[in-house]
Design brief:
The protein has 364 residues and is α+β, with helices and mostly antiparallel strands. Among the domains are: 50 residues, no CATH class; 134 residues, no CATH class. It contains eight helices and ten strands. It has an eight-stranded antiparallel β-sheet, with no helix packed on it. α2 packs antiparallel against α3. The longest helix has 33 residues. The chain is flat.
Length: 364
């Protein structure tokens, strides 16, 4: 029997046990605790995420292999047994299967019955026809009523304002439903072979096997960094570019965006957009409509993805789930168009809502 330097059983001489090998994959020592394991995993996922290497196929493949090893090591270290291997016990001789004297019988595949053809009953077809006719009649009736009230001098102005308000609310609700459905469907689409679920970078503390989160849809700002309105046209194919996110160094940002139009020790400027740095790390930004930059913030802890609004006391992660990535980001401020959300100690203390640009989804 071969042993690891930590005292556990190893498969071959000179090799590490499964736990020590997993710690080595996360660049940790044998005394690392759960907090250090999760912290190292969160950092390595951001560094080796394949979306950061879109322009280089070889680097992307290497990042996918590295991230796969990181996920496997994290799953092993956070399992219930902590990656500790139990010694194998030999099966008693009494329970070992005895060789059969008779030769095995050849396996015969049963013949499959032909599939019955699916046919709708006549009653069901009649019901569908009646339903379609009813919808058409209702549509014609509503169009006639709309024309009547809109053309009437007495009710035209009031009816026009009410209709515009109802259509605006319906359009906003449809946009929210469309965005949420797209995020959920993205998690159900099969990934290419060798890729890693994107949820490993969205929720670093979540189980990587339950990957079900979002990636970019290739749309540019300013209309919305966080939600894409339904019906947005795509005149031509959009080339996916890596996201710029908090924590990147100046060299990493310049490698993605190219040379800035202006530069200081604490700021990079691209047109009217500004990126702020603290101790050499990206810590904030102000994205202008005339110079859009693909930026992204992910929640640092698991949050209910079905949240519909936030309130005073909500965390930054909850605001990110509700509103998405802000166009203005600093330590204590999120900006969405002309709207602002203010924080103290990572909690919402107040906000300024500007429905004309991007309305805030605050609790009533």
């Amino acid at each position: 029997m071969h042993t690891c330097p930590c005292g556990r059983e190893a498969e071959d001489a000179g090799k590490l046990c499964a736990r020590c090998a997993a710690l080595q994959a996360l660049d940790l020592d044998a005394q690392a605790g759960e907090k250090e394991i999760r912290g190292a995993y969160r950092v390595l996922v951001k560094v080796w995420h394949p979306d950061r290497f879109q322009s280089d196929l070889k680097l992307r493949e290497a990042a996918e292999a590295k991230l796969k090893a990181i996920n496997a090591a994290f799953l092993l270290l956070t399992a219930k047994d902590g990656g500790r291997e139990t010694p194998r016990r030999a099966r008693p001789a009494a329970h070992r299967p005895r060789p059969s004297a008779q030769p095995p019988r050849p396996h015969r595949h049963p013949q499959r019955a032909p599939r019955p053809r699916f046919r709708l009953p006549a009653v069901t077809l009649l019901k569908i026809g009646v339903l379609v006719a009813g919808v058409l009649v209702a549509g014609v009736f509503l169009m006639a009523m709309d024309s009547f009230f809109a053309s009437d001098p007495t009710t035209g102005r009031i009816y026009g304002e009410m209709r515009a308000h109802v259509l605006a609310n319906a359009r906003q609700t449809a946009g929210n439903l469309w965005s949420q459905a797209g995020e959920h469907l993205h998690g159900l689409i099969p990934q290419k072979s060798g890729t890693v679920p994107v949820a490993a970078a969205v929720y670093p503390d979540a189980d990587p096997q339950q990957a079900n989160a979002q990636s970019g849809d290739g749309q540019s700002i300013p209309q919305s960094l966080h939600r894409r309105e339904p019906g947005a046209s795509r005149a031509e194919a959009v080339r996916l570019q890596p996201y710029i996110t908090a924590g990147l160094t100046r060299d990493e940002v310049i490698a993605v965006l190219g040379a800035p139009t202006a530069s200081t020790e604490s700021k990079l400027t691209y047109g009217a957009s500004e990126l702020d740095f603290t101790n050499g790390k990206l810590s904030g930004w102000k994205i202008a409509a005339s110079a859009p930059i693909r930026v992204k913030l992910w929640p640092e802890s698991p949050v209910d993805p079905d949240l519909a609004s936030f309130h005073v006391g909500s965390t930054k992660d909850e605001v990110l789930v509700v509103q998405g990535t802000p166009t203005l980001f600093s330590e204590n401020t999120f900006g969405y168009g002309g709207s602002r959300v203010f924080f103290e100690n990572n909690r919402v203390v107040s906000w300024k809502n500007d429905p004309a640009t991007v309305p805030l989804r605050v609790a009533p």
